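Minimal example, chain plus adenosine-5'-diphosphate.
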Amino acid sequence: MNILVINAGSSSLKYQLLNPETQQVLAKGLCERIGIDGKFTYKPEGKQAVKEADVAMPTHNEAIKAVLDALVDPANGVIASMKEIDAVGHRVVHGGEKFARSVLITDEVMAAIQECNPLAPLHNPANIIGIKACQALMPETPMVAVFDTAFHQTMPPAAYMYALPYEYYEKDKVRRYGFHGTSHKYVTQRAAAMLGKPIEELKLISCHLGNGSSIAAVDGGKSVDTSMGFTPLAGLPMGTRCGDIDAGILQYLMNKYGMDIDKMLNVLNKKSGVEGLSCVSSDFRDLENAAGEGNQKAALAQEKFAYEVRKYVGAYAAAMGGVDAVIFTAGVGENDKIIRSLACKGLEYMGLKLDEAANDVRGKEAVISAADSKVKVLLIPTNEELMIAIDTAALAK
Ligand code: ADP
């Protein structure tokens, strides 16, 4: 079964054609600068050919058309015709409280996704455009929506409610939703396989540390708490996002510098996090280099980030009444041994001991805790596309 996975943003579109049963990726790539001029990247697996071309993409329709043309291209294509695409899986950022799992896309589902637009005004409208563009070109092919928020819909009210007037929840749907659900679901399933135990019997803490970062407490395969909130601005400090801060700071800075709320939010989303703190970069590789050269602020940004990760590990162990394994995933979690080491520092009291030699590894599944560590520490590369393809195949059958 071949599944086309689409992750549509406002001006870009990532795609991957893969077989979820064999886990073989047939081709993948990226459409960028949609609505501007259009840049198309196509990489058929196993073949050397990497095509980077300027393709006019006034809308997402031309972008999807370029993807389909490349996939069936006689020279560099990987399938003979579009009929060999059995279903399309779409990443959708926000499913609100309506979607606790992936769904086959119908007119009703489209309307319900649209209703979630105010909750993710930058992302959901772009996801919808991507779905419509695919439907126009492949009207007979089943389409599935896979939501970033769905996995966290199992959280209990004490975890998802904010201590605000109740009416803001009832009338305005203000609550914690959480994101990166597809990634947390994938790595916790892999963790159960690596540990050789049913996921129902495991308490897991999944640390998705990338440019955007979130941590999830997963008890028996169900998300019971997560660090991102109503928006992906909450929780850990990130590349450029501040994470949790005192809301009173907003009033203080806005009054002092005459900033309106949009300007303030721009600072919190784009100029904060480890970039804001380090005055160096949002990229953890740059932080490592700068800290290595003696830059104190870069070292502080690394320490602050790892410190917050460590606090969440402690908090979520408390929330679940224990923890069997801590998982590191995504760009930073998979590659940055310094952050992993700092994050695990001082957790020996709860039975978590990192093996520094085993931690010297990148980008592959590995157990990096010491042999006598009661709590296992796992490195698991995330694979959101595969998770989307698995859900899509199951629903399209
Ligand atoms: P996104 O949230 O955009 O999906 P990723 O999960 O791809 O982000 O993570 C990207 C981040 O991973 C980069 O900004 C960088 O900080 C970090 N990263 C990537 N490679 C390394 C590395 N070798 N060492 C440390 N950090 C890395």
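DSSP finds 14 helices and 14 strands in the chain. The pocket of adenosine-5'-diphosphate is lined by residues 210-212, 239, 283-285, 330-332, 335-336 (CB under 6 Å).
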